[in-house]
């Protein structure tokens, strides 16, 4: 038996598991990510010689694999949202982006600076990479497929899905802020970087991302549904892999023009969705992206499980572990609750939105990307230890709680007769 034989077996079982497991665990306090994480951990413990991926030594590989997984999931999330765009309709999203996200970054940075004694740049980086949410790791809290049942897009599911779709890209300015601070001040503090950062990394790159996303989305929406030549009207061919083409084109153009590709992809998906909301082609596109996303997520979590055995926590301190726990149990619930004060959401709905700030693949990407730009005072192992712990705790905690929490909300709304769409 060779290593390649073991790899083929793992890949085959992983693909089959990605297809079978969602139906098996759908009604249980369990999630598919939990299963793959446990599988990676167990395989690494067996004497079969499967090599573990070290995100410090294999940083570039981790960066690009997580990057692809994130952009595919963003396309799927944007295509799934039925709700038309609007400032009032998306008010819960804007609150989570404008209140919860920056407060989360600041709170985590202050904890890392005060509790761990880290330099300001490294502390800010930890806040930036742990800020974005990732509902791909708990399918019950995402909206359902396009044109699905009303319960598949209640205010809670919509808020968490739309938040993750946008904050997965809007975390980039905070990551760039940490990089700029490290370059300007090293282990100290300086304010000289703030002006160029605000102008370029916040305003400029966000504007490019929105313009590219809207432009590519409009063009593809016209090509999919409205072009006169039937040979070019892609919705008539019902090919799902077109979703990958739309994803990579939007992402690539935005990055070439120095914009945020993550934001561009999500905006592109939303604009395509708006081009013809009732067409069944949206289901085809969404199902294909969901399948690719599920496979990539399975691979990454399997590798993360192996990394846990291979020494992920060797640099973890007690204070670092406490910080990770505080992110999930105190920082996110508190900032998420504050964002929903004085909204139409009921208390139970606010509690679920506040609690399910799931950390996942986006966090892994941002950390690997940032560490490719700066060494951050040699704290790479400590950063990966805290991030790995937080993601693993999120997978387990939210994976166990997602199904019971959402089912309880659905039963409560049915019993009280409350409108699902606030």
What is the CATH first-level class name? Mainly Alpha
By secondary-structure content and strand pairing, the structural class works out as: mainly alpha
Helix count from the secondary structure assignment: 15
Distance between the termini: 58 Å
Oligomer: single chain
Approximately what portion of the residues adopt beta-strand conformation? under 5%
Which blocks of ≥5 consecutive residues have pLDDT under 50? none
The global form is globular
- What is the alpha-carbon Rg in Å? 21 Å
Question: What's the mean pLDDT score?
Answer: 88
The CATH topology comes to Na+/H+ antiporter like fold
Number of strands: 0
Order of helices and strands: HHHHHHHHHHHHHHH
At CATH level 2, the architecture is Up-down Bundle
Helix content: 55-70%
Total domain units: 1
Largest sheet at a glance? none
Write a structural description:
The chain is an all-alpha fold and 422 residues long. It has one domain (56-416): Na+/H+ antiporter like fold. Helices cover 70% and strands 0% of the residues. Helix 3 (59-80) runs parallel beside helix 10. The radius of gyration is 21 Å and the shape is globular. The termini are far apart. The mean pLDDT is 88.
């Amino acid at each position: 038996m060779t290593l390649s034989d073991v790899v083929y077996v793992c890949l085959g079982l992983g693909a089959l598991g990605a297809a079978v497991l969602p139906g098996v665990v759908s009604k249980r306090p369990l999630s598919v990510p939990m299963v793959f994480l446990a599988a990676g951990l167990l395989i690494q413990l067996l004497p079969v010689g499967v090599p573990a991926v070290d995100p410090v030594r294999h940083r570039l590989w981790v960066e690009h694999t997580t990057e692809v997984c994130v952009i595919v999931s963003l396309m799927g999330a944007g295509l799934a949202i039925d709700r038309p765009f609007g400032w009032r309709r998306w008010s819960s999203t804007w609150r989570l982006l404008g209140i919860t996200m920056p407060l989360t970054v600041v709170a985590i940075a202050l904890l890392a600076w005060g509790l761990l004694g880290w330099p300001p740049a490294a502390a800010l980086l930890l806040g930036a990479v742990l800020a974005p949410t990732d509902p791909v790791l708990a399918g019950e809290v995402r909206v359902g497929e396009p044109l699905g049942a009303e319960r598949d897009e209640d205010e809670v599911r919509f808020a968490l899905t739309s938040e993750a779709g946008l904050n997965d890209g809007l975390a980039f300015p905070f990551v760039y802020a940490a990089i700029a601070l490290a370059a300007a001040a090293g282990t100290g503090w300086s304010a000289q970087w703030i002006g160029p950062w605000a102008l370029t990394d916040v305003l400029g790159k966000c504007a490019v991302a929105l313009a590219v996303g809207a432009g590519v989305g409009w063009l593809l929406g016209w090509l999919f549904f409205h072009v006169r030549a039937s040979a070019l009207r892609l919705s008539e061919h019902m090919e799902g892999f077109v979703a990958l083409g739309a994803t990579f084109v939007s992402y690539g153009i935005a990055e070439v023009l120095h914009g945020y590709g993550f934001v561009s992809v999500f905006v592109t998906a939303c604009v395509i969705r708006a081009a013809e909301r009732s067409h069944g082609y949206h289901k085809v596109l969404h199902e294909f992206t969901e399948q690719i996303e599920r496979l990539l997520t399975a691979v990454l979590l399997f590798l993360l499980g192996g990394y846990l055995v291979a020494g992920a926590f060797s640099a973890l301190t007690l204070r670092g572990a406490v910080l990770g726990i505080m992110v999930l149990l105190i920082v996110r619930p508190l900032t998420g609750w504050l964002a929903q004060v004085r909204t139409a959401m009921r208390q139970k709905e606010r509690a679920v939105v506040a609690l399910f700030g799931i950390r996942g693949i986006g966090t892994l990407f941002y950390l690997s990307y940032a560490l490719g730009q700066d060494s951050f005072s040699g704290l790479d192992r400590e950063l990966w230890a805290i991030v790995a712990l937080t993601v693993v705790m999120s997978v387990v905690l939210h994976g166990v709680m997602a199904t019971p929490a959402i089912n309880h909300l659905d039963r409560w709304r049915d019993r009280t007769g409350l409108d699902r769409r606030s």
